[in-house]
Amino acid sequence: MVNLPNYYYSIVIGLLLSDGWLSISSKTSKNAWLGFKQNINKMPYVWFIFNELSHYCSSYPIITKNNRLGKIHFGLNFFTRSLPCFTELYKLFYINNVKVIPKKIYDLLTPVALAHWIMGDGGFKSQGVYLCTDSYSIQDVVLLMNVLVIKYNLNCTLHKSSNKIGYRIYVSRK
């Protein structure tokens, strides 16, 4: 389990582009672990992902309760064990503990990864798909757009997100 097989690697890349994260527990820890959380209404998808990655986990998903802007939200999340395969990805996706888009994203963004990115952090609007990239820098979002246009020949535009903090990628149905 030091290396992720290609299919699982692509799933994790898609999760990391969406709501997945990697963390190293402490300064003395050697390896990173993967966390993934979604709203409770996406429970079937979380269970699908958990079933795919369960051999990297030591416990079942748990239900969480958050208070966001005065409204209670329920979610479902799971965590993997700390393993060298996740540490390698941590080194690609994090600089000074901040998630970034790796420069080699062109090679990492497989069709499976793209599908999981859309499932984890995409939404349908105006007969197209929004990819929520609010937490990334404008440079990272443009890099992702370039990969979508060049590698997959998708018609993409950059939109200011509704929260006015970041940017989102809109993929036209065309």
Structural commentary:
A four-stranded antiparallel β-sheet has the order 1-2-4-3. Strands 7-8-10-9 form a four-stranded antiparallel β-sheet. It is globular, with a radius of gyration of 16 Å. Helix content is 36%, strand content 30%. The protein contains six helices and ten strands. It has 174 residues and is of the alpha+beta class. It has helices at 6-17, 43-53, 84-93, 105-108, 111-121, 138-152, and strands spanning 20-24, 32-39, 62-68, 71-79, 94-95, 98-99, 122-125, 128-132, 156-160, 167-171. The protein starts with 5 loop residues before the first helix and ends with a strand.
Strand content: 25-35%
Average the pLDDT over all residues and give the rounded result: 93
Number of strands: 10
Class of secondary structure makeup: alpha+beta
Indicate the multimeric state.
Answer: single chain
The helix tally amounts to 6
Q: List the helices and strands in order.
A: HEEHEEHEEHHEEHEE
What does the largest sheet look like?
Answer: 4 strands, antiparallel
Poorly predicted segments: none
The span between the termini is 41 Å
Q: Approximately how much helix is present in the residues?
A: 25-40%
Q: Strand order within the widest sheet? A: 1-2-4-3
Supply Rg: 16 Å
Molecular shape: globular
Quick gist of this model?
The chain is α+β, with helices and mostly antiparallel strands.
Keywords:
10 strands; 4-stranded antiparallel sheet; 174 residues; globular; alpha+beta
Secondary-structure map:
Layout: H1 6-17, E1 20-24, E2 32-39, H2 43-53, E3 62-68, E4 71-79, H3 84-93, E5 94-95, E6 98-99, H4 105-108, H5 111-121, E7 122-125, E8 128-132, H6 138-152, E9 156-160, E10 167-171
Antiparallel strand pairs: 1-2, 2-4, 3-4, 5-6, 7-8, 8-10, 9-10
Helix pairs in contact: 1-5
